[in-house]
Structure to design on (335 residues):
């Protein structure tokens, strides 16, 4: 507050020097020093406030300053029409309104949720298309890695209903559910600290809709955003209602290294499969490979020849045979 008052006084003093009040005589060199000092002081004040303020506070403050300048100018028009001698008084009036409105806007900016402006302004004029997160994707946690690595940018929105659901899970007496809730809260903290996105809590609610998934889809539609989830049912609901949706599981599947029929892989056979004489192995990304005739190799690392790859809605199913058995079969067929 003291710094703001000093800045206000400095601005008026510099205005007096620039306008040139009658009776004030000052050497050009001293005037230059004062102008430079005032500019540095003003820059230092702006730097401190930008450092401490978030995007919402800065935007609301600059809007307040603009409105103050505009109001002061309108009120000073009659004075300028009467006489040019009132120009310093006009400058003081405009400056006072600018500081007063800017300071008031800064104090009240915490009550303004910038996401509400999305329903008034076009989103392209403020930020990139906002991304709305659901509960499952926060519990999953991979979204925080994508944000920190810079693959997802722009504005990240978390509806209040999702926050309440996470809090309910975190307070559950079930240790497993409580651990999921804690992981979701940790994910939120990582996203909030990320420097490459803007993070906002959406206070808006749709009380007439009780179903959480439908409410989340309609909130995303109202904000003109994209829903990010890994819940297949929620993906289907969003697609049916024409809401853009990103599925984290689909992204993970598309990033897996391709495995083609005929390829030979070194795999450790972990356990037996569901069918007779099958063995099961896993790739580094967790993809399961069913090895026909691999039961006898459980606990061993063998070469496996891939013979088929099936893509399903939940992931890939890969089937193969031990290369040693394949070679023996070819030798017998050749004889």
């Amino acid at each position: 507050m003291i710094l703001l008052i000093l800045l206000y006084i400095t601005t008026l003093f510099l205005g007096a020097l620039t306008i040139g009040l009658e009776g004030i005589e000052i050497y050009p060199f001293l005037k230059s020093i004062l102008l430079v000092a005032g500019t540095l002081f003003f820059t230092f004040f702006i730097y401190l406030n930008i450092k401490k303020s978030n995007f919402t506070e800065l935007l609301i403050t600059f809007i307040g300053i603009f409105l103050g300048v505009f109001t002061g100018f309108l009120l000073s028009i009659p004075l300028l029409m009467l006489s040019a001698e009132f120009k310093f008084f006009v400058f003081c009036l405009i400056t006072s309104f600018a500081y007063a409105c800017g300071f008031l806007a800064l104090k009240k900016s915490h009550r303004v949720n910038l996401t509400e402006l999305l329903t008034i302004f076009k989103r392209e004029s403020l930020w990139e298309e906002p991304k709305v997160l659901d509960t499952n994707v926060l519990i999953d946690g991979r979204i925080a890695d994508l944000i920190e690595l810079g693959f997802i940018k722009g504005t990240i929105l978390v509806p209040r209903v999702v926050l309440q659901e996470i809090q309910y899970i975190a307070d559950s007496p079930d240790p497993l559910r409580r651990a999921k809730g804690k992981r979701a809260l940790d994910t939120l903290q990582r996203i909030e600290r990320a420097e490459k996105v803007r993070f906002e809590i959406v206070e808006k609610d749709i009380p007439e809709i009780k179903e959480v998934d439908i409410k989340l889809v309609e909130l995303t539609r109202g904000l003109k955003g994209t829903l990010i989830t890994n819940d297949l049912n929620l993906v289907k609901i969003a697609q049916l209602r024409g809401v853009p949706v990103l599925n984290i599981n689909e992204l993970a599947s598309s990033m897996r290294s391709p495995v083609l029929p005929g390829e030979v892989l070194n795999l450790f056979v972990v356990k037996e499969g569901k069918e007779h004489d099958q063995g099961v192995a896993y790739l580094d990304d967790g993809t399961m490979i069913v090895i026909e005739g691999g039961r006898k190799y459980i606990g061993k690392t063998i070469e496996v020849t891939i013979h088929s790859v099936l893509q399903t809605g939940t992931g890939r199913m890969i089937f193969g045979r031990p290369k040693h058995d394949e070679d023996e079969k070819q030798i017998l067929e050749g004889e």
